[in-house]
Design brief:
With about 300 residues, this protein is α+β, with helices and mostly antiparallel strands. β14, α8 and β15 form a beta-alpha-beta unit. α1 runs parallel beside α6.
């Protein structure tokens, strides 16, 4: 049984759910989940959690991400990308300095209006389902954060801008590009999108489904599985003494005196808990009211005793 994360390169034409379905077939494991939807025409990094690592899906989904995108100026579409129906066409007369200034203005926090073609639910229905019916509903703007935008290339003849975007969770890149086009007055739509990083997962280390299938056939799959606790390395590590192993194996709270190195003033931050054999148990948090560490997420594979 695999318990860990595989950095999958999602190719064009697949939905994120397609990738999960393919991985279930390749690995012959049902308990698999992806960590953030990519549109079918987008490609790039899609960390896939397997087995007990599915408990990490929400944590990885919330990680910062990096994208490389191409903005096509002069047109807008209903989907905010090049696959949609063209809504407007305008001449592009803006200068390169104006393009650079408009792009820079989006670095930082801004209130983004989610696109109709998205999986966000309004009154129990996904927006893209309503959009396909020709309906548009009122959406609330959401706070997103753009850490940085680096312009990679400006093609003045084709009216295209290639850029790399570092952003926080919940950011729609095609909406960002649409908004930049609106700021410039000529409109714009997303021509292509590649996700190059999700947290510590990078494009250069991602594997296509065909490569993963080959590794399973050659019995090499474990060489590309990231361990669960490796993804949680930002959290401090503590170890429970052997004589108190029963507490953590049964998912019970424990006190600072049960540690191999007792802590006088414990933090309430999440910590990684290990047993005396160096096996990862899970994430715990100290509760000052109850004066004990209590489990947040458990990942242990050992049987209770």
């Amino acid at each position: 049984m695999i318990n860990g994360i595989i950095n999958v390169y999602k190719e064009k034409g697949y939905t994120s759910h397609d990738v999960v379905a393919k991985m279930r077939g390749i690995l012959r494991i049902k308990k698999i989940g992806h960590t953030g939807t990519l549109d079918p025409d987008a490609e790039g990094v899609l960390p896939v959690c397997i087995g007990k690592a599915t408990k990490l899906v929400d944590l990885i989904t919330n990680k910062d991400k990096t994208y490389e995108a191409v903005l096509k100026l002069g047109i807008t579409t209903d989907t905010q990308d090049i696959t949609g129906t063209v809504l407007t066409r305008k001449d592009v007369t803006v200068t390169i300095p104006e393009i650079e200034e408009a792009i820079r203005s989006y670095i930082g926090e801004y209130m983004q209006l989610p696109p109709m073609y998205s999986a966000i639910k309004v009154n129990g229905k996904k927006l893209y389902e309503l959009a396909r019916q020709g309906k548009e509903v009122e959406r609330k703007r959401r706070k997103v954060y753009i850490h940085d935008i680096r312009i990679l290339k400006i093609d003045a003849l084709q009216h295209e801008v290639s850029m790399s975007v570092d952003c926080g969770k919940g950011t729609y890149i095609r909406t960002l590009l649409h908004d930049i086009g609106e700021t410039l007055g000529c409109g714009g739509t997303m021509k292509s999108l590649t996700r190059t990083a999700v947290g510590d997962f990078h494009l250069k280390d991602a594997y296509k489904l065909s490569e993963i299938e080959k590794m399973v056939h050659n019995e090499q799959i474990n060489t590309i599985v990231y361990p669960i606790d490796g993804i949680l390395s930002d959290y401090s590590r503590i170890t429970v003494a052997r004589e108190y192993s029963k507490l953590i194996y049964n998912g019970n709270p424990f006190q600072t005196s049960h540690l191999t190195e007792p802590i006088q003033y414990p933090s309430t931050d999440w910590v990684r808990v290990y047993d005396a054999d160096d096996d990862f148990i899970g994430i715990y948090q100290y509760d000052y009211g109850r004066k004990s560490y209590r489990p947040v997420k458990l990942f242990m594979t050992k049987h209770t005793i």
